[in-house]
């Protein structure tokens, strides 16, 4: 069934709606079912994390919501075209930080005379004021991810899809960017669907945590994270809920024979 990438309505009930979505890929032994009967709504302004063991279909699900692939069954509807941010920053090294952002603005049809000012506004939003002229090699890993986030925000989407964007960063940088993402999410009112395999990261960031089982990926369980923001990784309520989720995740891994 087809994926709808836009919903024209004055009152939007959801940022993304997945209705009985399944996905299969051709394999050596025939069709391999990767995702099975996923039904999920992301509300406007909601921050949802997708959690699960490696190979459970988290990134596949995100690609389906982004419109990069089509479901084998079911339907996906989003409030406009989502913006996608990957684990790798994917910045063009021959462009400056500002020009990388301007490219996204150009593709969106923003007039040339307006692009630099908007790019600088976005750099300031991600705490990189003054970095417009810096080349990619001059930026640290955390700064590159901030530029990648600014480029995603340049798409003016109401739904931001994030595929383990902080996984390659050191713990301190990751913690700083958790704070920054929480601040930007609060300031902009974006809806965020965030893929991670890090349980504490999922609890640190989200209003709701969705756990996918493996082989194929199904929604095994979900948790509402009723912990006030700002949160810290080391906060006792975060640690307590993380332990509960980890126990369930370990059970899923054992059940499916993964190591």
TrEMBL record:
GO terms for molecular function: ATP binding; ATP hydrolysis activity. Gene3D superfamilies: P-loop containing nucleotide triphosphate hydrolases. InterPro entries: AAA+_ATPase, ABC_transporter-like_ATP-bd, ABC_transporter-like_CS, ABC_transporter_ATP-bind, P-loop_NTPase. Keywords: ATP-binding, Nucleotide-binding, Transport. It comes from the Bacteria. PROSITE patterns: ABC_TRANSPORTER_1 (PS00211), ABC_TRANSPORTER_2 (PS50893). Residues 16-241 form the ABC transporter domain. This is Sulfate ABC transporter ATP-binding protein.
